[in-house]
Please model this.
Amino acid sequence: MALAGGSLGTWIVLSAIKDEGIVSHTVLASHAHVDGATITYHVDRAEKLGLVMREADPDDRRVKRLRLTAKGEHVYEELWSAAREFQAQVIAGITDAEQARLRRTLAKIRANLGVPADAAPAHRTGREAPPRR
Model:
């Protein structure tokens, strides 16, 4: 991520907004599975870098909605590319059957830990989800 001009925090913010669309801090924190203070820190940093914008919610001016800027969209694409390259490196030489077995095993581990099935990394339409590092 660093080589692509980002960080884990930047990736969390950008990918969650990209997955969910224009969102509030609460939705973003829930999607990223982090607390409010952590997501606020990362959003503040992304805003200072010009990657996201905060806008007042038209239905509740106390709520701020987040959206990607054009620069944020560009950085997201750069980080997405880096994530795909990393994923390819991680799974090199692992057959499709082995990958499927690993996904089933990880799903069982999540279930054993009581993590809801919808907490698994989201899959984007037409794209396979990159690993969250």
